[in-house]
Amino acid sequence: MQFLIYVGALIGAFLILVTVHELGHFVVARKLGVQVQRFSIGLGPVVWSHTTKDDVEFAISAIPIGGYISMLDIRTEEVPAHLQHKAFNCVAPWRQIAIAAAGPLANLALAFVLFWVVMFNGIQVALPYVGQVRDQSPAYDAGLRGGEEVVGVDGMQVAQWMDLYRGVLSRVGDTGTLSIDVATSNDGVKTHLIPIQNWLSATRDPDVLGELGIQQGILPLVRLVQPGSAADKAGLLAGDRVLEINDVPLRVWQDLVDIVHASPNTEITLLIERDRLNYTLRAIPESQIAADGSLFGRLGVVPLVETREIGQGVIGSMVYAGSETWSFTALTVTSIAKMITGQMDTSNLAGPLTIAHLAGTVAQRGWEYYARLIAMLSISLFLINLLPIPVLDGGHIVYGLIEMVTRRQVSLRIQRIATTAGLAILGCLIILVFYNDLVRLVGG
Fold first, then answer.
1. Containing H/E element for 437?
2. Which is nearest to 174 in space by CA: 6, 338, 53, 24?
3. Among this protein's residues, is 22 annotated catalytic?
4. What's the rounded Cα separation, in Å, for the pair 136 and 212?
5. 3-class SS at 316?
6. Separation of alpha carbons 414 and 411, rounded Å
């Protein structure tokens, strides 16, 4: 069943991405006077088709990953003289460029729309508090201790944990200084500087925040006290902030959990803050049996996760969608450039097996997560297709630009050689991403 979910989610994502991409080519080609002969969703043998009055065949093909449109082209077929003005290679080069660029741009537009739809009613995100900081880690050496609210990374604003993650991820392979800004108690900002040197450039699928020694955290605030629990008997109330346990200061909720778990049936002293006043309480955590047979303490409290709303309303969601589209585009461009220059390991490239796993996982979490994944994949498709490789849209754009400058079409011989080279490059890329997928699969 799990396998079917992964496969279904992968096929669904690819069908959406490919349909929108080819629809971009189709609409612009028709608007600019080029005859489209077939619009196919899927590759391989046609299993269903319908031809319209203006001789456009809409088809569904057997292999559900991929798709294409075929246009009239005198380089690949005999075209009657009265139709040659509708052939792709016979129209003005700017029209060829517009048609080639329309597919990738449709994917970029799809990403924006999906982000917009997801955010239309706004979402609640947890405030980006730093959790426990690993001793002697880069973050610890820079002065982070846990409990700080992150408000910026390298000068960019941070509103949620994902903003911090993207900002740090963009620095993979860099040498210099990573800056993390945190809010202070007097409404100021303190900057923590972390030196980096060819940072994680040879690491496969790096856990960038984990490598810094930090994780997401929440403050030791009580949202709910379970009736009859040790916390209830001690007098804890919803809204209390636990400042210390046994004179040990608490920075984040995990600090509280660690101490309570280590104190089954043992009295602990809590210093709490309630209505801006401090109180001392005593509690005896209940003894519980773990799966391995060991004992751990349980207080009976639920943490309060502080949140903020982002992207609410038509305008707010549009602004957020634009910001997300730009952020993921910039991050993808940076990552591709770093792989080309060797600053980032190519093992981070993902193929269909990894995408299928991601798609299946996020689809089970909800449509919003699935839509966001499709949006990110759509941005990747937008950029990959703009690469100046002859068999991709970017290659056709280059041909069009050359014709505009030289006023001569690139010769068929050169195009054939370039196409062969382009296919070889894509073949190597396909082998690489499948190899990366298999390594991830074998490695767990």
1. helix 412-443
2. 338
3. yes
4. 10
5. helix
6. 5
